[in-house]
Specification:
This protein has 176 residues and is of the alpha+beta class. Helix content is 41%, strand content 21%. The chain contains five helices and six strands; from the N terminus they run αβββαβαββαα. It has a six-stranded antiparallel beta sheet with strand order 3-2-1-6-5-4, sandwiched between helices. A hairpin with a 2-residue loop joins β5 and β6. The two termini are 25 Å apart.
Amino acid sequence: LDPQMVSRFIMERAAQLVGTRRWRLYRVDETAGLLRLDTCPNDGSADSPPLELPLDSSLAGEAARNRRVCHHGAGREPWSETWAISWPVPLPDSLIGVPLASRGRVIGVAEFADPRSGRTAAMDLDTVAALMEPAAIALDNAQLFRKLEERTVTDDLTQLYNARFMDNYLRRESKR
């Protein structure tokens, strides 16, 4: 139930279905108005994606704000400067942004660059969106489980570790 492992598993499987090697998963940070990079493929390229994107400056941000699948592809308007900044050169010919919604709120956005078909039909977009719905719930559950684990070992008022944490820590250290 590690959120990082869950998001990586989700995106690797989704990328196989979409037929791309270039993808990213951003988590929404509503308080800061940002998308924070959660996971992307380890392809060894020198260009690393931005760790944070403003919600108002990318295709992923548009998908999160509008709560719908966004697509930019061949034959559409040219890349805007703010959207192009988030992807290294060469820019993708086609890009899909899928919001990950769970419990009535957007928790993240999955981006897929250059899907296998080259041109993405509306049916393909609906299929990708349908596939990502249960994935969003799984990721949200993993995040909630992580928060619950953290709350069991910290004091609500002071945010300091409590006696339960100390017992677990001392037990681990004595075994070691």
